[in-house]
Amino acid sequence: MRTFAKIAMTAAVLAATVWASAGSGEANVTIRVGVMADTITNYIPAVGRELGIFEKYGLDIRDQTFSAGINTVDALTFGQLDLGQAADFAVLNRIGSTGKSDLRIFTRFAKSLPDSQRFFVNDDEVKSPSDLAGKSITLRKGSVDEFWVAQLLEQNGVAAESVKLLPVSSYQEGVALVQTGKATGMWATGKAVGLLRETPGVREIADLATINAPTITLLLSTQKFLDENEEAVVSYIKAADEILTYIADHPEETAEIVNKAINAPKDQVLVNIKVYDIGIGFSQEDLDALDDINKWGLSSGVIKTPYEVRDYVDTDALEDALPDRVTYK
User: Fold this and answer.
1) Is residue 215 classed exposed, middle or buried when 0-12, 13-18 and 19+ CB atoms within 10 A define those classes?
2) 33 beta partners
3) Hey, how many other C-beta atoms are within 10 angstroms of the C-beta on 72?
4) Residue 16 pLDDT > 80, yes or no?
5) At residue 63, does pLDDT exceed 50?
6) Which domain holds residue 237?
């Protein structure tokens, strides 16, 4: 929430911009944004450009696609991005791995519905998650996969040390291992779900409802960027909110736009839209959910450094852009 120091910030700092794109007339503010492949976050740039929404808010968005949210978090940390989108655990885990971080959560982007993530296996002996002892599971290290796998095993009485975890860099790599029998199971979403369903002998045995772990997709930046570019971030929040409203209200048209822009199959775009509860904002429920994940991470030893989640939340820009969407205390 807004602090006295930030309210007192000089006009010179508030007016600071990122780097402006060349062109005639008044230049748009350029923001480098990281998005996740094969998710709704990947559709925002295409829709925003096609409908002229970014231009309306004076923005030039330079998007870069990553295979997982943790990659966007790292790119932010190394100064390669200005804003990024990632799942809750990936953000909290990275903050807790350094002892001190400039990363800041500035809004919720969406919540994953239970069927957005599904767990598949290729072994007839595995009838339920409780049968995973002695088997192998793919894992995108540092991503929210780590939390889902841990919860799946823990809640089904399977000792973590009894399962072989196979590091992969993407869903595609995991699918290949499951399809060839080199891994027993994996969490999957988007296109990976379709590929696994088409693979003989591969079955779905769980989803997020199984482990009671709804996942929040977060928008984040660094404190430095938020402080020096608040007006630009406010404009981005307004633009993103308008785009997300369009996506929710016009899924068919969105699928056409995204297919044209990034060649994503229309049917897959429609599926990906349906598995999210879309909505920018930040509530007490969001903060409580993040606190619960952080406490689990600390107690399990996955998150190494204790910290208060609240200290890494900065909703000043969100309060300026959409004041009724900030409801945490």
Assistant:
1) buried
2) 63, 83
3) 27
4) no
5) yes
6) 4-112+215-325
The pTM (predicted TM-score) of the whole model is: 0.83
Q: Measured at the alpha carbon of residue 107, what is the angle toward residues 102 and 108, in degrees to the nearest 5? A: 120
Token digits of residue 45: 């740039």
| C-beta of residue 69 within 8 angstroms of C-beta of residue 91 | yes
- Domain end among 184, 207, 230: 207
Residues 12 and 209: their CA atoms lie apart, in Å, by 49
Residue 47: its pLDDT value, please? 98
Mean pLDDT of 257-268: 94
Domain end, chosen from 179, 207, 235, is at: 207
| Same domain membership, residue 142 and residue 66 | no
Q: Are 126 and 324 in contact (CB under 8 A)?
A: no
Same domain, 57 and 188: no
- Look up the CATH number of the domain holding residue 108: 3.40.190.10
pLDDT in tens, 26-55: 679 999 999 998 889 999 999 999 999 999
d(CA 95, CA 87): 13
91-130 residue pLDDT tens: 999 999 876 899 999 999 999 888 889 999 998 899 999 9
Residue with tokens 């409780």: 130
